[in-house]
Amino acid sequence: MSQRGQASVETVAAAMLLALCALGVVQLVLVFSAAQEAGRIADQASVLAAEGRPLPARLTDQAHVVVRDDAVSVTVDVPALPGLPVIGLTRTARLP
After folding, report:
1. In which domain, by residue range, is 37 found?
2. Which of 39, 64, 69, 95 could form a disulfide with 50 if both were Cys (CB 3.0 to 4.6 A apart)?
3. Above pLDDT 90, what percent of the chain?
């Protein structure tokens, strides 16, 4: 193989590796965003539950909310890149 051919193969391989790394970063951002959303919903739901108020539909539509005696657990689906399984992410907040 000539040096030009070798350089072309290395360039393509490096571009593919860079694309995979970029997709990994995108997935991490999606996980972080879902974690923030779950935490926000858990905090809001815990305050509402402590006040004895019902949870609005906008909270329960976005996540699976379970209110217990002393805490609220919220599970949201983490958006996944095509080909990856969708996972649930759970956050818990104690009632104030």
Report:
1. 3-94
2. 95
3. 80
